[in-house]
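Two entries, shown back to back:
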Amino acid sequence: MTAPWITYRPELKVLDCTVRDGGLINDHLFDDALVKAVYDTCVEAGIDYMEIGYKASKKLFAPAKHGAWKFCDEDDLRRIVGDNPSSLKLSAMADAEKTDYHEDILPKKDSVLDVIRVATYVHQLPVAVDMIKDAADKGYEVTCNIMAISIVQDAEIDQALEVLREAPCSTVCVVDSFGSLYGEQIARLVERYKKALEGTGKEIGIHAHNNQQLAFANTIEAIVHGANRIDATAMGMGRGAGNCPMELLIGFLRNPAYRVRPIYQLLQDQMIGLREKHEWGALIPYNITGQLNQHPRSAIGILESEEKQDYVGFYDRLVADL
C-alpha cells in the first residue's frame, strides 16, 4: 500500500483563480490594490499560475458595469504586473461564445499573458476547438475546461475527450461547476480523462466548487488519482459557494516550493474586509442546488432577495421543477 498524500509530485502545478472566479461575486470590480496583493502573494507563495481574469466580449458585457478583470486589456494587466519579471505564469479565461478572441487575444509576443484557458460547455466544443487552435497559433500555452461535467452523459464526455486528444491544449480540466459531485465520481472522471488522453502528454486538471463543502476533499481525490493541474482561490472565494481554498490546498501539498504563510497574510490583509462586503461560501441555498445537481444561479438569486432564509420554499420550488 502506498500513501501518495504524504509525498509530492514535482509535476503537480497550482493555479490561483481568485481574481477570475472570485470576480463573479462583484462583476470584477476589484481595486488595483487587491489584484496586486493577489499577484504578489502568488509570487511569494511559489504558486505556478495566476488567472487574473477573463477575456470577455465588450459587446456582450458592458465595460461600464464590469471591472477591468472581465476583459484583461493589456494596459490594465501591465499596470499591475509590469512585464511580470517572476516565474509566475499569468492566465486569462476565454469562455466559448462569450469572447471576441480573434481581436481581443493578442499574439503572445505582444502580451504579458502566458496561458489562455478556454472554457466550454460540451455543446460548444466546435467553437472551443477553434479558440484553442487560435490561441496556440498565437503562441500561448492553452488549456480547456469542460464546464458542468456533472450533467454531461458519458457518451458525450468520451466524444469530447476524443476531439480534445487532437486539439493543441496541454491540459483538460474536470470542472464540478455545480458543486454536486462526490469523491467517487471525481475519481472516476479523472480516470476517464486519463484513459482518453493517454499518450498525448496532456495533463488532467481539477476545478471544484464548494456547494456541499467538498471542494477541498474532491481536489485531494483528484490529486490522488493523478490530476496534476489544480485550481484554488484565496479563502475559497468564487461564484456562489466558492472554490477549493488555496490556504488548505497549499497546507496539504508537501512540495517545499510552496509557502502558505503569504496566503494567510493575504487573507488577513485583504480577504476578511472583502468578505464583509460580499458573501460567498457553502450557504444553505448553495447546498440545495449542489445536492440537486443544478446551476447555482437560482441560489444566487434567492440570496439577493428578501426570501434568502426561506430554505423550505426554495427547496420545494426546485424539486417541483425537476
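entry 2 starts here
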Amino acid sequence: MKEISKLMEYRPGVRVVDATLRDGGLVNDFHFDDEFVKALYQTNLRAGVDYMEFGYKASREMFDENQFGKWKFSRDEDIRRIVGDNDTDLKISVMADVGRCDYKQDILNRADSPIDLIRVATYLNTIPGAVEMIEDAAKKGYEVSCNIMAISNAQEGDLRAALDILGQTPVEVFYIVDSFGAMYPEQIARLADLYLEMAAKYGKKVGIHAHDNQKLAFANTIEAVGDGVDWLDATYASMGRGAGNCAMELLLGFLKNPKYSVYPAIQFIDKYIGRLKEDGVVWGYDLQYLMTGLLNQHPRSAIQFTREGRRDYAEFYREVVAQD
C-alpha cells in the first residue's frame, strides 16, 4: 500500500500542464475567441500552472482551415497575439501528431518561436515517425515530450520496446496516456513502475494524461503522483474530448506545492466555462462514455451518439458490445 506521505508531500519536480485549449478544442473544433484564450492564459499565470498547451500543429493540407478554429493549427503569430513575449514563468506548448502535421515547415526554430515545448503524440505502430519528430524538435531547440496513445490495448513487452527506443532520443518526458478512460488506479500503478524504470534508465521524466470515462481521471492522476510521476495534465472543468480529462481545479486543490492556487481556476470556470456550456458545447461524463471506457474502446462511437442527441443508452450498449 502506498504511504500517505507520498500523497501529502511537496515535490518540487511536479509540473502541471494545462491542456484545455488542445483537448478541450476537440469538443468545439477549436473555436475559442481571443477573450477566452487570454483569460485562460492569465488564469494559468495566477494559478501557478507550469505549461499551457495552445492546441495542435496540425497540417493545413490535411485539415480544412475553414472548418476549424485557429488553435487546431497554433500558428506562432496567433500565440504571440495572446502571450506577447511571454516574459513569465509559464511555458508554452503545442501538440504534434505523427502523420498529421507538417512539422518540418510549421515548427520553426525555437529562437524564432514563442513555443517552449513540443508534445509529440504517437501510437505504438508509429514510433519511428515519433523518433524523427522528436529529433527534429530537439535540433530546433525545443523541450520535447512524447505521448504514447491507446496504451490500454498494448502488451507490456511492446510498451517496453517503445520506451527503450524513445529513451535513446532527446525526448525529456514519457507520457502515460489513458486514451479511452479504461484504466483503474491499480493499472496506472503498474504502468508507472514500468515507465519510471525506463525513465530512470535513460534520465527522463514521466507524465500522465487521463480521461474521465469512468470518473477516474483525477484518481488515476493522483495515483500516478504518489507513484513518482511528475508531469500532470489537466483541463479546467475537465473540458476535453468525450468524457473529458482530469479537472484542473481538483488537481490544483490537491497538490501541496504552495506555488499552485485553486482560486483563479474557480474564477475562470465561473466566468467562462458556463458560457461555453450555455452556447451548447458538450463534454463530460455520461453513460455512453462509461460504456466505451468499460469496453476499452475508442470513444468515437460515444461522441457520435452525443452529437446525434440520442438517449437510447441500452440500445447503444448493445451496439458497442457487438463491436467489441
